[in-house]
Amino acid sequence: MPQSEPLQDLALPSLSVSLTAAFFALAFLAVLLLSSSRSDIFRTHGLPYPPGPKGLPFLGNVHQLETTRRWIQLCKWAFYGSTVGLRVFGQRVIVLNTHEVAKDLLTKRGSIYSSRAKQTLGTVYGGWNFALTQLPYGEEFHLQRRFVNRFLNASAIKKYHEFMTESARNFVARTSRTPDKFQRWLHMSTGRNIMMLTYGHEVQNEEDEWIKRADTAIQTRKVLGIPGTHPIDLFPILGKLPFWVWGKLFQKDMQTMKTFSYGISLEPYNIVLKQMRMGTALPSMTSVLAEENMQEDGSVVHDKEIYGSAGSLYFAGMDTSVSTLQSFILAMMIHPDIQRKAQNELDALLQGTRLPTFADRASLPYLQATLKETLRWKPIVPLSLPHYSTEDDEYNGMSFPAGSLLVPNVWKMVYNPDDYPDPHSFNPDRFLNTNPENGKTELRKDVLDPEQIVFGFGRRICPGRHLATSSTWITMATLLATFEMSIPLDEHGSPILPDLEFGPGLLSQPKPFKCAFKPRGNVLSLLADYPTTGPARPIVL
Length: 541
Description:
two-stranded antiparallel ribbon; 19 helices; globular; iron ion binding; CATH 1.10.630.10; 43% helix; alpha+beta; single chain
């Protein structure tokens, strides 16, 4: 969230507005004082709130939180225990530092830990009232989840294998021609899968407007900070204040957010409806659901749930999958020994005569372990979106009051040395062992699967996880079969080292980097028909 400018540096529109702002500011402080004074009174059966750092009146711990990489600060407070209690402007925030605690609360007690805090700032003023990720636990949430799960469950994903394979090969073919643009091609490939599935839209080039809308919409959400903790979320009356109170850029950012929230929800939905009337719509999640729920007068029942579920997949799946694949490429660059081991496994199976397909997945355990290690090594979402408790609860002798935000500290979990020894090392072998009966390499069942952490917990687990892991796997396999990826050299022969400190924000993404792609033998000849030209083959739903 942009830092607020000092009030004396702001261009105040008028004295009357200033007095109004002052009135609401005083009211805000009064409410904070009340919430602060009552914060320790209400305990479940006299049990204490989880321990944590001492905060200030009114502010709580907000002044102690990193403004960018909050997970780093939260990890520093992990010495308080597996649960750490904080307050942000009177809002209770409980950080969950271990997988065991997150599973005990968010999964096993999901009936009271599956909601979301009311996010007035994002939903009322930012236009994100459609998003599945922000919906409270209830009827609309369940309907959207049913819509999404129908198209993204483990069985349904198999219908898209051919299309995802084609996207991966298109990406590799484009990279072979212009390797300096590999990140653009990767973005295009990932967007192609999502746009065709959700809207039947074929991504034709790197300047695709639909992808641009998703990118901008994701960026605008940074202004929200930790969801549910902005003062406007805690005290909606503060939304009546002029937005310049929160900083010079805040008003502009909020208007941009609202514009692009429409651009990834209702706008593409209306485009698909128009195509359906014209008879030009390709099969997609949106067209199938709209047709099934269309009335005789042309209206659509549950239209908000339809465009909400499609829009949520649209924005949530883009940068996460791209960033994961960039992390994989980085790992291969700096660990050539691991890259060769994965390629040896592929070569033994493919014999240089064909490219990998999903039918090979079960025969490539080292590649599967490499995918798991990529998800663990640099989690793209270091802090899961907060769950909201709807009832008072107690756990391990502590009080968990209703109305608390529970934040799974994903970063801390995937770097837990008890689950992952030497956690800072990139080591796919941690997930593998040798079967003593047949001598084959197999995935271990006694190691915590990072997929159980990075995709969330309980009834809020990411419904697109099967799509994400499948599209990532086939792209990884195709890259390894066709290229050697290495650190490039500058004109003086010195290595151009990548920055391994990922960026800040809700999504922690790799910073721009360069990679040298060297074709492996004659494998690229197998890509003679790629990238494909002309219209894509529609997905069969």
